[in-house]
């Protein structure tokens, strides 16, 4: 787990809300506080879809940021910055598997619940925290370290 502050908030927010830079992240939870507090649970409600529509959906239990980004942008855009927001992203299964392929670890994709990227904006400060949730107990921190480095590289490339 790492915690870092984002230095160039304006550039980061453009990548987050305008560009497709974060679109392949899954969304666990969003809370945006402006004139109201808007909350989004990123878990897909499968009862909403027909059987045919379900077959066309990705095999994930969370929505992709690309689907929720326009709504979040519409809530945040304007002359005033939000009072605060929190976004909890997760890697999809294919990205978890790719990360595991490049990591020297005994942890398998089946052992991983989620790999999280938490973004928080409050009092003009934007920061991120990474997190690793496993289904097993292990002292092996190689996946966590690899994920931390992957996210640090991703953020620094903005």
Structure description:
The structure is a single chain. Strands 1, 2, 3, 4, 5, 6 and 7 form a 7-stranded antiparallel sheet that branches. The chain is of the alpha+beta class. The model has no long low-confidence stretch (mean pLDDT 95). It has 5 helices and 7 strands.
Brief summary of the model shown:
This protein is of the alpha+beta class. It has helices at 9-17, 51-56, 65-76, 93-101, 142-156; strands spanning 3-6, 26-33, 37-41, 63-64, 84-90, 112-122, 125-134.
Keywords:
158 residues, alpha+beta, 5 helices, 7 strands, 30% strand, globular
Quick one: overall form? Answer: globular
Number of strand elements:
7
Question: What count of domains describes the coordinates?
Answer: 1
Residue share in β-strands: 25-35%
Average pLDDT across residues? 95
Low-confidence sequence ranges:
none
Cα Rg: 16 Å
Largest sheet: 7 strands, antiparallel
Structural class: alpha+beta
- The number of helices is 5
State the end-to-end CA separation: 20 Å
The helicity comes to 25-40%
Question: What series of H and E elements makes up the topology?
Answer: EHEEHEHEHEEH
């Amino acid at each position: 787990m790492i915690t870092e502050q984002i230095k160039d908030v304006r550039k980061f927010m453009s990548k987050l809300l305008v560009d497709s830079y974060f679109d392949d992240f899954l969304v666990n939870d969003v809370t945006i506080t402006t004139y109201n507090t808007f909350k989004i649970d990123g878990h897909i409600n499968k009862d909403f879809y027909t059987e045919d529509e379900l077959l066309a959906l990705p095999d994930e239990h969370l929505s992709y940021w690309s689907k929720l980004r326009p709504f979040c942008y519409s809530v945040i855009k304007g002359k005033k910055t939000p009072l605060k927001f929190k976004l909890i992203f997760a890697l999809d299964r294919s990205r978890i598997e790719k990360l595991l392929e490049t990591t020297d670890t005994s942890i398998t994709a089946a052992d991983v619940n989620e790999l999280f990227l938490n973004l928080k904006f409050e009092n003009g400060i934007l920061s991120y925290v990474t997190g690793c949730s496993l289904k097993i107990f292990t002292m092996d921190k190689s996946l966590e370290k690899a994920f931390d480095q992957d996210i640090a590289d991703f953020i620094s490339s903005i």
